[in-house]
Amino acid sequence: CLVELRQAADTGSSVLLNMAYLKVSDSLYLGTDLALTRVPAQRCSRHVSQSSCLNAMDPYCVWNELVERCMPQPLDSSGFQHWQQAPQLTCPVLNAPIDGGWSTWNPWSVCQQHEETDSNCLCRDRSCNNPQPQHGGASCEGISTQVTNCTQHGGWTEWSAWSQCSQTCGIAVKIRRRTCGNPRPAHGGRTCVGSEQSEMYCRHLPPCPVPKPPSVDGGWGPWGEWSECSAQCGGGFRMRRRECNDPAPLNGGLDCPGCRLDYEDCNMQSCSEVRKLSAWTPWLTLPTGSAGNSSESPHIERRYRYACRATSPDASSVRISLAKEESRSCHQDGSCQRHGDHGETADTESNWS
Length: 353
What we know:
Elements (H helix, E strand, L loop, with lengths): L15 E7 L4 E6 L3 E5 L9 H6 L5 E4 L4 E4 L10 E2 L24 E4 L7 E6 L19 E4 L24 E5 L19 E5 L34 E6 L19 E6 L7 E4 L6 E2 L13 E12 L8 E12 L5 E3 L3 E2 L10
Antiparallel strand pairs: 1-2, 2-3, 4-5, 4-6, 7-8, 8-9, 10-11, 12-13, 14-16, 15-16, 16-17, 17-18, 17-19
């Protein structure tokens, strides 16, 4: 019977020269004019089900119940109770139903999600060809294509409820918010367009009371320089001042306590007396009696000189006294004769000026 048909060459250009089976390697060797090809004699792993393994009637293959695989028949027979093989090897059952089996998954690749060129996914697929369903066998169960990491553009959630007004008087606002999470952008997707916050003025609020600024009590600044003494001797005073500006009283704050001006004594030493003589006064004609009033009799003239004394430069403290006087008799012809001096003797001090 026909057990298996193998194609030695695809093109037919090679000529098969020799063929031999070697039990040592359990392989069939094919010699052509171009190459020597080794073909394993047992190919148990191609049978993925128990029925396929047993129906192959392959004398080199058994079904291992422990691992549920079609495997080469081992040389050791210690675990024979777990092996299954057709009770009697005959020709292969070629028309037995063969259920389909999935191939391995192909690598992930970029695939287009829909008509938008910037919306892609990662896709991979597999085929129901390991083996293919044959002779009425069941098809593979499950999906043949997997899709993941699709481009997901962001979408807005619903607006939240309006918040409370930011204050209870004057100009106030209330806000509402939304988020870009319905769905969130993923795998290169676009973020949401627009604002995530909306604001609205609160209406019909009463005006806010005008806040009263806090009061600031005044504080003294530094003292200024002392003024000149009011007297050079005999006791005077001098003054200095300061300003209530550090800080100045504000908004009903208290004024600075204490005095703005400060006085102190100065130049308390005694003054030395200053004495000066005035210049002579002009000659003054004295009145004469009627008995002696004749055009030929002489008349009397006098002049005076005064002494000024003070112990202070202040003019109000000056004391004036008669220091000296002179008299003379004058005739009609203009000649005069001085009399003896009266009063104090002449001072040698400088004249008052």
